[in-house]
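User: Can you write out an input/output pair for a complex, sequences first and structure second?

Assistant: Here is one pair. Inputs:
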Amino acid sequence: MARIDTFQSLLSARRTRRDFAGTPLSRVQVETLLACGLGASGDGQMVVPSAGALYPMHLFLVAGDVEGLLPGLHGWSSPEGLGPLLQSGDLRPGLQQAALEEQPWVGRAAALIVITADIGAANAAFHEQQPDGKRGERYAAMEAGAIAQSLYLGTEVMGLAGVLVGGIDDAEISVALDLPDDLTPLALFAVGNR
Ligand SMILES: Cc1cc2nc3c(=O)[nH]c(=O)nc-3n(C[C@H](O)[C@H](O)[C@H](O)COP(=O)(O)O)c2cc1C
């Protein structure tokens, strides 16, 4: 079990880092990071909490410069791991275009993790908790935050650089990645070497 002072040091060391070295990541590094964000914990649950254990969150990997992985969009599930290539090519320029304002680090990241949610499923599960039936939206945002913090901490432990990019045009991201209609992109997590 980690000591609390070790954990607090990790929390304090966590930083948003947007200066990427421009060198490749390994497939193992990105898979490890994905497992930090939304990995099976081995007891039937996941490493991040989920309201009602619904797990409406889905991660995708946009590989740009990752050794052992073709550039493009890969699905992720755990414990299965990375899925087949869903779309090939360097998708980073399209994501940078879909970021709100100038965010050049989106295009320079070696890889980006796309945090998405099935908001419809979440709203359906928790509709009785709120008059407008949209309590699931709030829960999905909370769960995205938990995933983001796990990604930040994993990045820190691995000595990588990472930034959570919540400033995105949802529709543009969906089009750029041809995401399934039932998934809403909530944020990107851009990662690379320091
Ligand atoms: C919800 C959320 C959205 C964010 N969106 C962006 C973003 O679009 N672009 C960016 O460069 N940083 C983004 N950040 C990172 C913040 O700028 C960063 O966390 C803040 O400056 C504090 O720095 P720190 O993370 O090093 O503590 C976001 C952070 C959060 C929590």
